[in-house]
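Subject: for your reference before the review

Hello V.,

The reviewers asked for a structural picture of the protein, and I figured it would be easier to keep everything in one thread rather than splitting it across files. Below is the amino acid sequence we used in the manuscript, unchanged from the supplementary table.
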Amino acid sequence: RPDGPFTDYLGHPLIDKFHNGAQPIDQMVFKDRDGTYYIVYGGWRHCNIARLNADFTGLVPFPDGSTFKEITPAGYVEGAFMLIKDGKYYFMWSEGGWTGPNYAVAYAIGSSPLGPFERVGKILQQDSSVATGAGHHSVLQSPASGKWYIVYHRRPLGETDPNHRAVSIDELHFDERGFIQPVRITKTGVAADPIGAPAHDHDMAGMPVMAGMHAAAVSPIAQRQIDSVARAITPLGAPGAAASSGFRPVFGWIPTMGVHWIDRALMTKDKQLDRKSPSNLMFSRIAGKDSLVGAAYAYFTPESDSTPPALFDGAPMWHEHPNLAPPGQRLVMLHVWFVPSPDGPFAGTNPNLPFWAAGLQAPDSARMRDAEFNSRVRRASLALAEAIDTTSIFPNLENRPMVKPVLVARRDTIRALIPEFRAAERARDAARWDRAATKAAAQWDSIYAAYLSSSPTPAGRQRIERFIDMLLGHHHE
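And here is what came back from the structure prediction:
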């Protein structure tokens, strides 16, 4: 029972000696995705990780024969905590003196429970108007609401006894790139969040996703490289900041690519060698806010040049936009998504964007392996785009006599489907969600047919087909 009574399981300490300089205190048990359990612990500015056996009565050596591996990040003091979210390993700890006002919590991100972990920064510390000495924490996620919470202790204002601390709880938030936002410590704590059947899951930044969502796998090295890009361009995470740094929006919102903000001076092949300076920033609306959802590397090159730079581990494929290049040249591009994409972080398009822009959860990416479901979702995403932003696909065709009546009727029908999607999400009713997606996809099919029929020439129809083919994820590589 969680309320006890508890008895000593072993009759002796599991770990009773210093290893790698780590004081044997402040342990937590972490379960990895493959079911392996680890114990993460340590004081005196050192942290170890070790594998637990099946019944938690002992430790299992690592393949190299070692039992304890040190994973101490910069600034670590004590209070280790680890969680995994969207394929990223978040290693958190306390730093500073626990008896003083500057006790705080910081964190790092890694691609495995063994690290290496790159420090990001502090996320919990004192507020002179609320309390001091905020630290030594734990993190939990509500299975009902999907919200994240941080539980920690702090010292009330005016308290002089270093041992007098109060347990507190506040909300924990992730931004759209998966970084933890600084916690605002409060005097009131959090509202009641009753535990019941899970309502929904969340991806990085708390963006809602249908159950079972996961991104296509990349190597740990590539994931660290992606994270380093996201950190490097964090200062450009709002359109105003991007504009101040010389980026300008082009083309408007492209439904499965967002709004590309470009720095034309960076669009040469030699400039693509700096991974942390992408020439394109991609923004799209999430939770009503223009959010930095990814970056892109792009350059113009002669048609004879067929060897793109190798920027990321695994050499992901670049794609082309032949209709945007001057005669005799090619426009070559590589997208890097900071938000979940069912086709992986280097996909040319992301069909989740229109769902988020409509205030919906992204579809279940695990089901995207099914060809029929995949096609339905991509077509439904373009239907949603037509309802969200009527200028996002073919604004120049909208007023043609054979197109306008179709668009007006179909867009109204699609808008009426958005509440149906939401109701299915709340109920976790996959069949109901599928019905809404099928209806939305059918509306898109009618709109697409109207666009094609409005073109008087085969060449015009071919241009329409190529553009839609691209939006549906069929890039030329």
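For the response letter, the relevant points are probably these. The chain is about 20% helix and 25% strand. The chain has a mean pLDDT of 89.

Happy to draft the paragraph if you're swamped.

O.
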